[in-house]
Specification:
Helix 2 packs parallel to helix 3 (about 195-205). The strands form 4 sheets. Strands 1-18-17-15-12-11-10 form a 7-stranded mixed sheet, with helices on both faces. About 15% of the residues lie in helices and about 45% in strands. It has about 240 residues and is of the alpha+beta class. The protein has helices at about 85-95, 155-165, 195-205; strands at about 5, 10-20, 25-30, 30-35, 50-55, 65-75, 75-80, 100, 100-105, 105-115, 115-125, 130-135, 140, 145, 170-180, 185-190, 210-215, 220-230, 230. It has 2 domains: about 5-75, OB fold (Dihydrolipoamide Acetyltransferase, E2P); about 85-230, Trna Endonuclease, Chain: A, domain 1. Strand 10 and strand 11 form a beta hairpin.
Length: about 240
């Protein structure tokens, strides 16, 4: 089981407002704390004033924030909002041998330079090497996880790069971790970012493996539950 324990203690609070891409105000007890928001996505359906949150308390002696916003309560469940969690989940998975389709991991490198871009992981397995990009998703609509929720030119470039690598005989995968437990599938969102969606569709056709895993989020841990289908076609059926 891939399980990422969260730091202790987590301060309970209430979301007040988003200040900018990476900062928010959270009420903790009688105080309003400035906190780091480790996610540049829009998350408009999650970052609602009055929503319950959990904050990892900063131990720094000085700084402009009091903590790091990790979880927010939405539709009766906890949702992870830290976009760094997927890399940590993936590394925990590699320590256990990997997750399909990348299995039999022996060793790996982080932040590998390939053709002028930086790829999250190069994984050495018993059957060869894989380039792997990990991605975070926390937007779910009626059981469908949607990615991205804002345009990502970098994401489209990486998909093009991975497709080129596969075209040269290599192996590559994109792995999404949906940081909530109610996703039945993941769909690339053509409306939010048609360039990324087109790049994902083409990359899959070139042989890049696109996979997603739904997770359970709680104040104790983020836990990988099960693999869910990834849909890339502009026109699609239900999942």
């Amino acid at each position: 089981m891939v399980r990422l324990p969260l730091p202790r203690p987590l301060a309970p609070g209430v979301f007040v407002r988003r200040v900018n891409r990476f900062a928010a105000d959270v009420q903790v007890g009688s105080e309003v704390w400035p906190v780091h928001l480790p996610n540049s996505g829009r998350m408009t359906e999650l970052l609602v004033p009055g929503a319950a949150v959990r904050v990892a308390i900063s131990r720094a002696a000085s700084g402009s924030t009091r903590g790091r916003l990790l979880l927010i309560r939405h539709a009766g469940r906890w949702v992870g909002v830290d976009s760094h969690f997927p890399n940590r989940l993936w590394e925990l998975a590699l320590q256990q041998g990997g997750l399909a389709p990348v299995v039999g991991a022996r060793s790996w490198q982080r932040e590998v330079r390939v053709d002028g871009e930086r790829v999250d992981f190069c994984v050495h397995t018993r059957s060869g090497d894989w380039l792997v990009e990990t991605k975070s998703c926390n937007r779910v609509d009626a059981g469908v996880a949607l990615f991205p929720d804002a345009p990502t030119a970098r994401g489209a470039r990486h998909l093009h790069l991975l497709a080129e690598v596969v075209g040269r005989g290599g192996r590559a995968a994109v792995v999404w971790f949906v940081q909530r437990d109610d996703a039945r599938c993941l769909r690339v969102d053509w409306q939010a970012d048609p360039k990324f969606a087109e790049s994902a569709h083409r990359a899959r056709r070139r042989g890049v493996r696109l996979v997603a895993y739904r997770c359970a989020a709680s104040p104790a841990a983020i836990t990988v539950l099960a693999r869910v289908p990834v849909l890339t076609a502009r026109r699609h059926g239900s999942c």
